[in-house]
From TrEMBL:
Coiled-coil stretches noted in the UniProt entry, renumbered to this chain: 268-306
Protein name: Protein HEAT INTOLERANT 4-like
Gene3D superfamilies cross-referenced by the UniProt entry: 6.10.250.2770
Low complexity compositional bias, start-end: 16-34
InterPro entries registered for this protein in UniProt: HIT4
Residue ranges, annotated region (Disordered): 1-48
GO biological process per UniProt: regulation of cellular response to heat
Keywords: Coiled coil
Length: 346
């Protein structure tokens, strides 16, 4: 009996030892099983909802691609920091739009204007895009003029690194450009802003005085019919005055200048001779301009005449959005002194 009890205790000891040995293994197995289960749970976790981005419109970057001629270089960032919306320009190329099916040449400009925006009045550089409907480029020249410059220059666009280039819509960007027949051409400038610091100040300033040039042979230029001239009398210091040979009298002008002490009595005759000479030169220039225009029309083909007479100018301003000011009272049809006024402002 005692032996049997002894054997039973020994067996119990062996069983207990065996149980203690198996416990870590079971615990390890359980941990591994739990980890695998967790992995299965993680794997079964539903995927995040895919993000959807708004598709870009086919002509969305058109207004930005058009160079804003005459804008000061240090103001360009102020123009582009606003989220301007030119969807009206884009829609004009859609069926039923003003520019649908037309060959169009676009150039940009900016107009500093006082506008009310977000509770305050501020000066903002408002971008505008001018569309010229024409079968050929309206001009390959640029006018450079300002109140600071003594004379006006008409030079080839390429001297200012500008040219008409085809605009490629977004959906056609992967196509070969030479195979596309784009009906949209934009005035582009390849002058890099980073290289401006290496240019002379006068050269940099020329970009700020640039105006897209246009010569309409069927419309008399304002200077051809003007009878008013600017007179610069070369004395020390020199002074400027205006004289209209059909309205004002030279004798009265001279007397007034003497009274205001711009002239002395002994300069009177010399000043009058200077004005008469300037008037003769102005009349000659007007006459030559009229003759040149008449000759150009006579030598022009009927196709070109028809093209000039059918040209249309449209001026586009940004449409109002929550991110941009209301420009309804800021829109003007005037383009520049060469193009005159737009047929329609949109």
């Amino acid at each position: 009996m005692g032996k049997r009890l002894k054997r039973t205790a020994s067996q119990r000891g062996d069983a207990q030892s065996s149980s203690e040995e198996q416990q870590p293994q079971q615990q390890s197995t359980k941990t591994t099983t739990t980890a695998r289960a967790n992995k299965r749970v993680k794997a079964a976790k539903p995927e995040a909802e895919p993000e959807f981005f708004k598709d870009k419109r086919n002509l969305e970057d058109l207004w930005k691609a058009v160079f804003p001629v005459g804008t000061e270089w240090d103001q360009l960032d102020r123009v582009y920091q606003m989220n301007w919306d030119f969807s009206n320009l884009e829609n004009a190329f859609e069926e039923g739009g003003k520019l649908y099916g037309e060959k169009v040449y676009l150039f940009g400009c900016t107009e500093p204007q006082l506008v009310f925006f977000k509770g305050e009045r501020k000066i903002m550089y408002i971008p505008a895009v001018v569309a010229v409907v024409s079968p050929f480029p309206p001009s390959d020249k640029i006018g450079i003029t300002s109140v600071q410059r003594e004379s006006e220059e008409i030079i080839p666009m390429k001297q200012m690194k500008m040219d008409w280039v085809p605009y490629i819509p977004l959906e056609n960007r992967d196509s070969q450009v030479d195979r596309l027949k784009s009906p949209i051409f934009i005035l582009s400038c390849t002058q890099r802003r980073a290289a401006l610091k290496h240019l002379k100040i006068d050269r940099v300033k020329k970009y700020e005085y640039c105006l897209p040039y246009f010569y309409q042979p069927f419309k008399e230029d304002e200077f051809e019919q003007s009878t008013s001239i600017s007179i610069m009398y070369p004395v020390e210091p020199p002074f400027f005055c205006e004289f209209d040979w059909e309205v004002g009298g030279l004798e009265d002008l001279t007397d007034n200048l003497i009274e205001e002490r711009y002239l002395t009595e002994d300069q009177k005759d010399d000043f009058k001779d200077h004005v008469k000479k300037t008037v003769r030169e102005a009349k000659k220039a007007n006459r030559e301009a009229r003759e040149a225009r008449k000759k150009a029309i006579e030598e022009m083909s009927e196709e070109t005449k028809s093209a000039f007479q059918s040209m249309k100018f449209y001026k586009f301003y940004p449409v109002q959005t929550p991110d941009t000011p209301d420009l309804s009272n800021s829109k003007v049809p005037f383009i520049n002194r060469y193009y005159g006024k737009a047929r329609e402002v949109l």
